[in-house]
Amino acid sequence: MIATEVDRQKFLNSELKYYRLLFLIPVFLLFDLSIVINISLIFCFVYFLTSQSLKIITPDLLLWVSLILWGIYTVIISPVLSTGLLHYSLIIISPFLIFILVINIENSEFYKFLKNFMDFSLIAGCIISFYSIFTFYEIGFKFSMRIPSFWQHYNLVAAFLMLLIIFNISILIYSKDTSKKIYILSLLILITGLILTQTRAVLLGVVLALIIFIFKKPRLIIPISIFFFIAVFLFWGLITDRLTSVINFYADISTLGRIQAWLTSIELIKENLLLGYGFDSYIKLRDTVFSNYFVVTNHSHSTYLGLILELGLIGFLLYFSFYIKAIYYSFFSRKIKNNFFPFVAGLQASLLVLLIIFFFEPYFTPFGAITVFIWFLISVSYKIHSINLNNPEY
Known about the structure:
The protein is globular. The model is unreliable at 8-14 (pLDDT under 50). The chain is 71% helix and 0% strand. It is an all-alpha fold.
C-alpha cells in the first residue's frame, strides 16, 4: 500500500521522545561503561533541550546549583585537575542529567517507561549473571575465585545485582500484570550471579531487604524462609567461608585493609572536616597517615567517608540531601495504591539497604556505572512523588 500524503506528514512530524534514549543505559550497564553512559546522558540532555517545548521542571533547583558550584570548587582543590574534572562529571554532572531527564518525562508515559527500563535492567543483570555462571563452569566450579562478570569491580557489580534482586522480588510480590514464571527465573539467575561475587556486605543487604519485605507482609516468611534455606544449602561452603572471614577479621587481609582505609580517612577528615580535599584525594594523602598498608586501595572503602573526604561535610550534606529526600518521598508521601506500588516498595527496600552497605564501599564513585543507577532510583522516587501528588490516578 502506498502511503498517503497524510501518512507522510504524520511520519515527518513524528518525534523521537528523548527519554527513549535512556533505554541505552541498561545496555551500557551490562559492561559497566560509566564514561559512555555519561556521554550518552549529555547527548540525551542536549536532545531534550532542543525538543522540549514545555517548561523544564527542576525540583530543588537551588540545591542543585549549590552542589554544582561546590563541585567546581572541589575540582579546583583536587590534587590533579584533569582527574578532578573526570570525577566531577561522573559523580555530580551525570546525576544531575539523569535527574532532569527522568523528572521531565510526561506523567502519562512514565509508568510504561519505568516498567520497560526496569525490565531491560533485569535482562542486563541476567546476562551479567549468565556470564558469571559460565566463568564459574570454566574454572571448574571453584569457589576460591570471586567472579565480577563483565565488570571490573566485584563489589560494584554485586550492588547492581542486589538492587535488581530487590526490585525483582517486589515485582513478584506486588505486581498483578506480570508473568510470575519469568520473574522467578530471573530472580534465581540474579541471585546466583550475586553469590558468585562473594561480596559480604551486599549479601547482608539482600537478607535485610528480605526482612523488610517480611515485615511489610508477614505471610511471606514461609516462602522466603524456604528459598533462603535452599540457597544456604546449595552455597554452604562459600557462605561459611565468608562468615568466617568476618568473625576472624584479624586474620583476613581484605577486612584489615578496609579497616585501615577507614582509619586513614577518619584521620584526614578530622583535619579538614568542612571543606574536604578534592576529588581523588585519598590516593594522594593516604601515605601521610600510614606508611604501610595491608591492602593498598585507591579509595576510602566507604561511601560516607569517601564523600566527606573529597567534598567536605558541606558538600556531603548537599549531595546526600537528595538521597534522604528520596527515602522520605518513598515512605512518607501520600499512600500509593496504583500501578507504581511495586516500584515504590522496591525503592523503599533498596534505599534503606543502601544506607547500610554505604558503610563498606564507595557506591557514588567514578569507578563504576552503579552511581548512575542509584541516581536513577533517586530520580524515580522524586518523579513518583510528583505524579502521585498531582495526578494520583496514574
